[in-house]
């Protein structure tokens, strides 16, 4: 009775209210965090290698990659619009339609009304901010579900996008816009890609290193904790929608530049693509948080996969299929991450 | 200012300005006067315990201090000698030198320790919101702070993965640190830390860490208001106790010079005389250790959650106490028997059903006459936003159906009768559950299940966060049910309670039944048996010589 060879579990855990749950230090960190964080980059590398082997002649061309980089910057920018509302615990489903509407607005002012391109862009950005503010104001002022409000507002934006140009494509947007997005290159890649990278880095900084990002994290975790910490929860949520509107408008402008035209179209695929990227991003780089770098990588992971399948002969419907499947996979994966955390916590609590 | 008191809760008598001086604080809800003009003084370096039953006005007082409630005109508050205009601005109590730690701790579990520690620094305006946070500096400062307060916490750990005690320590350090910043701007004086029932969910053996921390905080000169039902904790760290009853202050005594009985009497007033307490605590000795009634539940080799191969019988008319430390597995037993835990195995035999435990589900268990009163009232026991009537009778809605319609009027009528039967206050079953105090909510939860006339009651910490007087009412209620032939399984980490109510007590350690305890029962004996059973590991036999 006095000789205890095996320390009872309860005592092993008891001495001192220690910090971390006990387990094998480094190896656990590598197995857990790092493995989790690097899963997507590894999958990315495998996908590239796979398509490279299947289509070495077309897929593994530098021109193919620069076109992937350049053509998908609309999504790279737009996914950033989601991050702050998502971190706050809010969904914004209107960003894709808002992006489409502001894109139309630039063409409509520039081509149909003869405005110079710069004022047209500025007005479009201002409209993006205003629409985001309307979203945020309705949601915060009347305490209504952002899912429904932004779904409805998205439909409104969509309607306007088709109404302004009479359902026609607006061709002939000022070539300056196309020059400064798709045609000029830096390091061999179109400028619009670098705009997206800059915005991504800004969001990475804001979410990781600023009081603003920290407040969003706490608000997303618990409105009550945030309120009692002295945060103005509603104000933060409002501004998140405003930022989302602004970023969505930027992506709309960039999209005009890439297409050198403004085309009213269904934005369902775009919305699914950015949500799939945001949730895939949640599982990587900084797992368990909506993070800018993870979301950025995810955009290109999805884009490369779609591109590869197109080269293999798949039709455009593959996008719908693929984004849908990946959004489900990403949401389930992020859920598993959270649940595994909870399970670890439960073990630690014993 | 530097020395920390080690054991004696003697207050040396700081003659400086009181850290908190409140007078004539009052608050009414409709016609109900929750707080009737209460005065409160907390000196620097003093721990004042705030005692009182649920519904006595304790939480109203705390909520006035936090700015959640607006007090009636005529009250005043001085912090460190300075007048504070009432109401205290909500969410900004720290700016007047008040820090709060609530029972739920106010931590974000998915975020890191360092992020939670400095959350108060993230309040900023304009461009300040985008100033860079240097995480390496923040982590270094966090380590310095933890070292200064003598707590072992890793700034990089995720809060949700910490033990509950560590989480509580983090919450207290955070509040104390914010108050230290306040003191730096106010001549190193003032500051009051309000601890609102922080020990409720902590295992007994780890509360000492919390007491050490509070002593250290007080050693720095902060005042502490310690709101608790836990007499042991109060005795351990409080210098003075202010007692509220029915919204009035009925006592303000030095803890050293008052006995437990004195304090309990102050808290409960005339409604509970001393003989009842004494009679209650010797109840077990009058009972035979072996129950004789019909077996209403026979558990054979049941495993699930942390439990491995549990076997025992529960008899009609018996209150069977299960004593175990948190994490022993006993806390999962009621849920396993109710069919609410995945991957269970083993057999159950009831008078009207026998089978594998994994065939059970909560709905099946209810149809077999089982009832489960969970410990987590907020999440599992009741719905705060629905009225008392619906919470109380939601299992019996069928009996209020009349030609296809739910008769809400009859429902409310019956609920009001039950509120009377079970002494639920206020006596208005149309109120939302959230507007009741913890003890009264628990009575509603009990009433809800008793309404089903269960043959088998599974109770998990049924008096957690419930005041002394209501506890004894609940004990009486359960004894009466047992006398009617109901079998009651009572899982608790409150061994005083188990000694009071149990006819028979089983020990649970490391997921198994480690033995039983023979009467007479007392808190001290159960405690020592449980601890030695836990220390012995999986030993089966426990000698109970006295």
CATH architecture of chain A: Orthogonal Bundle
Q: How big a fraction of the residues of chain A is strand?
A: under 5%
Strand count, sense and barrel status of the largest sheet of chain A are: 2 strands, antiparallel
Briefly note the structural class of the backbone of chain B: alpha/beta
| Amount of helix of chain A | over 70%
Strand content of chain B: 15-25%
Low-pLDDT sequence parts of chain B: 1-10, 270-289, 537-546
Summarize the structure in words.
The complex is a heterodimer of chains A (350) and B (546). By secondary structure, chain A is mainly α. In chain A, 75% of the residues lie in helices and 2% in strands. Chain A contains 15 helices and 4 strands. Chain A has helices spanning 9-13, 25-54, 62-71, 73-88, 95-112, 117-141, 146-163, 175-183, 191-209, 211-221, 223-228, 233-259, 268-282, 292-311, 317-348; strands spanning 170-171, 185-186, 189-190, 261-262. In chain A, the strands form 2 sheets. Chain A has a two-stranded antiparallel sheet with strand order 1-4. A two-stranded antiparallel sheet of chain A has the order 2-3. In chain A, α5 packs antiparallel against α6. By secondary structure, chain B is of the alpha/beta class. Among the domains of chain B are: 20-271, 3-Layer(aba) Sandwich (Rossmann fold), CATH 3.40.50.300; 382-453, no CATH class. In chain B, a hairpin with a 2-residue loop joins β14 and β15. The model of chain B is unreliable at 1-10, 270-289 and 537-546 (pLDDT under 50). Chains A and B meet through α1, α9, α10, α11 and α15 of A and α4 of B.
């Amino acid at each position: 009775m006095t000789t205890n060879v095996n320390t009872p579990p309860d005592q092993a855990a008891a001495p001192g209210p220690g910090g971390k749950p006990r387990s094998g230090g480094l190896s656990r960190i590598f197995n857990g965090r790092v493995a989790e964080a690097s899963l997507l980059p590894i999958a990315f590398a495998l996908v590239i290698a796979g398509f490279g082997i299947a289509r070495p002649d077309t897929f593994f061309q530098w021109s193919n990659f620069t076109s992937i980089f350049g053509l998908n910057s609309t999504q790279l920018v737009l996914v950033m619009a989601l991050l702050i509302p998502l971190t706050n615990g809010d969904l914004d489903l209107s960003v894709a339609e808002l992006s489409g509407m502001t894109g139309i607005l630039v063409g409509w002012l520039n081509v149909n009304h003869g405005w110079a391109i710069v004022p047209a862009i500025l007005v479009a950005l201002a409209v993006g901010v205003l629409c985001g503010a309307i979203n945020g104001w309705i949601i915060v002022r009347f305490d209504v579900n952002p899912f429904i409000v932004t779904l409805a507002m998205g439909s409104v934006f969509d309607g306007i996008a088709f109404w302004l140009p009479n359902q026609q494509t607006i061709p002939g947007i000022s070539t300056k816009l196309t020059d400064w997005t798709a045609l000029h290159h830096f390091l061999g890649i179109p400028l619009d890609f670098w705009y997206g990278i800059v915005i991504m880095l800004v969001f990475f900084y804001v979410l990781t290193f600023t009081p603003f990002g920290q407040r969003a994290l706490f608000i997303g975790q618990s409105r009550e904790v945030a309120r009692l910490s002295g945060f103005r929860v509603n104000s933060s949520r409002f501004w998140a929608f405003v930022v989302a509107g602004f970023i969505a408008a930027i992506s709309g402008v960039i999209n005009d530049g890439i297409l050198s035209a403004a085309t009213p179209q269904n934005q369902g695929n775009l919305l699914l693509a950015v949500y799939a990227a945001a949730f895939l991003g949640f599982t990587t780089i900084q797992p368990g948080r909506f993070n800018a770098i993870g979301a950025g990588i995810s955009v290109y992971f999805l884009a490369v996969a779609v591109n590869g399948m197109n080269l293999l002969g798949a039709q455009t419907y593959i996008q719908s299929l693929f984004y849908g499947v990946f959004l489900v996979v990403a949401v389930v994966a992020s859920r598993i991450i959270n649940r595994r955390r909870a399970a670890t916590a439960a073990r630690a609590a014993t | 200012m530097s020395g920390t008191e080690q054991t004696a809760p003697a207050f040396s008598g700081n003659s400086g300005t009181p850290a908190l001086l409140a007078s004539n604080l009052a608050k009414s809800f409709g016609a109900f006067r929750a707080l009737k003009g209460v005065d409160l003084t907390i000196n620097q370096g003093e721990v004042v315990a705030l005692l009182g039953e649920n519904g006595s006005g304790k939480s109203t007082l705390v909520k006035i201090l936090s700015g959640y409630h607006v007090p009636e005109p005529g009250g005043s508050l001085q912090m460190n000698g300075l007048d504070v205009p009432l109401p205290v601005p909500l969410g900004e109590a720290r700016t007047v030198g008040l820090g709060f730690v609530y029972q739920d701790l106010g931590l974000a579990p998915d975020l890191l320790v360092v992020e939670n520690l400095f959350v108060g620094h993230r309040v900023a305006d304009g461009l300040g919101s985008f100033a860079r946070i240097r995480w390496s500096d923040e982590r270094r400062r966090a380590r310095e702070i933890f070292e200064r307060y003598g707590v072992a916490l890793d700034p990089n750990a995720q809060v949700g993965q910490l033990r509950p005690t560590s989480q509580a320590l983090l919450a207290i350090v955070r509040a104390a640190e914010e108050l230290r910043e306040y003191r730096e701007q106010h001549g190193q004086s003032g500051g009051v830390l309000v601890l609102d029932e922080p020990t409720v969910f902590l295992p007994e053996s780890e509360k000492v860490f919390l007491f050490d921390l509070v002593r250290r905080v007080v050693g720095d000169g902060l005042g502490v208001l310690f709101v608790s039902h836990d007499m042991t904790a109060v005795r351990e760290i409080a210098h003075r106790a202010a007692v509220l009853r029915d919204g009035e202050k009925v006592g303000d005594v030095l803890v050293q010079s008052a006995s437990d009985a004195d304090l309990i009497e102050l808290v409960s007033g005339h409604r509970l005389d001393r003989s009842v307490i004494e009679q209650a605590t010797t109840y077990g000795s009058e009972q035979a250790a072996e129950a004789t009634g019909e077996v209403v539940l026979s558990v054979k080799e049941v495993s699930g959650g942390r439990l491995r191969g549990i076997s025992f019988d529960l008899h009609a008319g018996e209150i069977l106490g299960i004593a175990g430390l948190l994490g022993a597995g006993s806390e999962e037993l009621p849920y396993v028997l109710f069919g609410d835990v995945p991957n269970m195995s083993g057999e159950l035999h009831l008078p009207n059903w026998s089978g594998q435990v994994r065939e059970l589900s909560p709905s099946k268990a209810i149809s077999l006459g089982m009832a489960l009163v969970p410990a987590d009232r907020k999440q599992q026991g009741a719905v705060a936003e629905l009225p008392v009537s619906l919470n109380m009778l939601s299992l019996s809605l069928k009996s209020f159906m009349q030609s296809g319609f739910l008769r809400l009027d009859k429902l409310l009528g019956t609920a009001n009768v039950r509120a009377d039967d079970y002494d639920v206050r206020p006596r208005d079953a149309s109120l939302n559950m959230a507007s009741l105090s913890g003890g009264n909510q628990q009575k509603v939860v009990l009433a809800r299940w008793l309404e089903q006339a269960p043959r088998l009651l599974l109770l998990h910490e049924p008096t957690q966060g419930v005041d002394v007087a209501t506890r004894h009412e609940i004990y009486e209620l359960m004894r009466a049910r047992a006398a009617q032939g109901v079998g009651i399984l009572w899982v608790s980490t409150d061994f005083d309670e188990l000694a009071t109510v149990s006819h028979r007590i089983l020990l649970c350690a490391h997921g198994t039944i480690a033995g039983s305890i023979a009467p007479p029962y007392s808190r001290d004996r159960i405690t020592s048996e449980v601890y030695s059973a836990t220390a012995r590991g999986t030993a089966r036999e426990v000698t109970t010589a006295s």
